[in-house]
Amino acid sequence: MKLVFAVVHDEDGNKVMSELNEKGFSVTKLCSSGGFLRAGNTTLLVGVDKDNLDNVIEIIKNKSKSRKQVVNAPITPVDMGSMFFANPVEVNVGGATIFVIDVERFEKV
Fold this sequence. Notes:
Elements: E1 2-9, H1 10-22, E2 28-33, E3 40-48, H2 53-63, E4 66-75, E5 85-94, E6 96-102
Antiparallel strand pairs: 1-3, 1-6, 2-3, 4-5
Helix pairs in contact: 1-2
């Protein structure tokens, strides 16, 4: 038995979850936020047999798309002291970060 932790962009969370449910996988959804952009993420937990692990990962990959987003990153000009100015920067957001761990014991009560 494996436990998949998938951290996906909020916009992709429901799509990933729906597809996993349609394929017969049970999913637990947790709300989370990222450290870099402090934006909302969705963390999905999926318990899966080793034989179906690749199927779960493939669904997550197919439904979690990377996209570009413009954010205002603060910069501090050296000659201006401690004043901050917004500097628009294009960054990639989305996609998925997937962790897979072994489960020693699983019970559904």
